[in-house]
Amino acid sequence: KKSEVCGAMAKADIKPKSVHHAKKWSDDVENLYRFQQAGYRDEVEYKQVKQVAVVECWPETGFVKKLQRRDNTFYYYNKQRECEDKEVHKVKVYVY
């Protein structure tokens, strides 16, 4: 199953209603981990800040492929899972 993240659309200035920490790894948690590593809450905030319509994803896995940080340097990610089990509880899941 591919992650929903790469297909989601960002609307102007959406703020999350609540937040909780991830309990177990999933495709969505993996992508949130990648956005948070690059300094963003999630895909919605990334699209607002960077003014992009599409986030580059790996076609095989649906995981985020590359992100531009706020200082304009790039983060490149692997096709495989990068968020280890010990990191999962650090990932914040935002509810809109």
From TrEMBL:
One Gene Ontology cellular component: nucleus
InterPro entries, alphabetized: Meiosis-expressed_gene_1 (IPR020186)
Superkingdom to which the source organism belongs: Eukaryota
Family: Belongs to the MEIG1 family.
Task performed by this protein: Essential for spermiogenesis.
The protein's name in its UniProt record: MEIG1 protein
Lineage of the species this protein comes from: Eukaryota, Metazoa, Chordata, Craniata, Vertebrata
GN (gene name): Meig1
